[in-house]
Amino acid sequence: MCYTEFEFILPKGLVDPEGEIHRQGTMRLATGKDVMYVQRSRQVLEEPEYGVLVILSRVITRIGNLSSVSPELLEQLFLVDFAYLQKFFHHINGELSSSGAL
Fold first, then answer.
1. pLDDT score for 3
2. Of 17, 29, 71, 86, which has the fewest CB atoms closer than 10 Å, so is most exposed?
């Protein structure tokens, strides 16, 4: 059986505008289309470091009850959660992450 979506729990959690904390989420495997999208993104062309937020926003399918995950939303993450998601991305995608997308 092949799994393409993986559950995670953020160490601190994402705090939404209403003050609710979201810790549990799911992330899917990245695709070539995701990498191409990041490379063509206007935001990333202007600020290459933003690519991390763009790729994570594409592969995170849910955080708590938030099913719409944008780079702007991920900007609100605590540093420990941001680092956790990067490490989790590398873990589930293996060598894909060495392509420079993340």
1. 77
2. 17
